[in-house]
Amino acid sequence: MSRINLCRPTMMSWMHLFQTFLHIIQIVLSYFLMLIFMTYNVWLCCAVVLGAAVGYFLFGWKKSVIVDVTEHCH
């Protein structure tokens, strides 16, 4: 019988550190976008909205198939 090597996720694993790094980048970029929007410069605000729309169009077309067991809608 073959032995399956299962690794338990730990707080100091490389994957968790990488996900933490990506989370920090996401928060910093979100704050920068918020500050750009708070300048009330119409062209910069339009650029942020247009960038979000283009990004969603290019990368948001494939939805993840995660089923929420708490969702009761049919």
Polypeptide structure, described:
There is one protein chain. The protein is mostly helical and 74 residues long. The chain contains 2 helices and no strands. The chain has helices at 14-37, 42-59. It is extended and about 50 Å long.
List the helices and strands and how they pair.
Blueprint: H1 14-37, H2 42-59
Main location: membrane
Pfam families: Ctr
Subcellular location: Membrane
Q: What would the keywords be for this entry?
A:
single chain, 74 residues, mainly alpha, 2 helices, 57% helix, extended, copper ion transmembrane transporter activity, transport
Q: Which class do the helix and strand fractions yield?
A: mainly alpha
Strand content bin: under 5%
- Residue-averaged pLDDT: 85
Number of strands: 0
Radius of gyration: 20 Å
Tally the helices. Answer: 2
Shape: extended
SSE sequence, one letter per element: HH
Summarize the structure.
By secondary structure, the chain is mainly alpha-helical. It has helices at 14-37, 42-59.
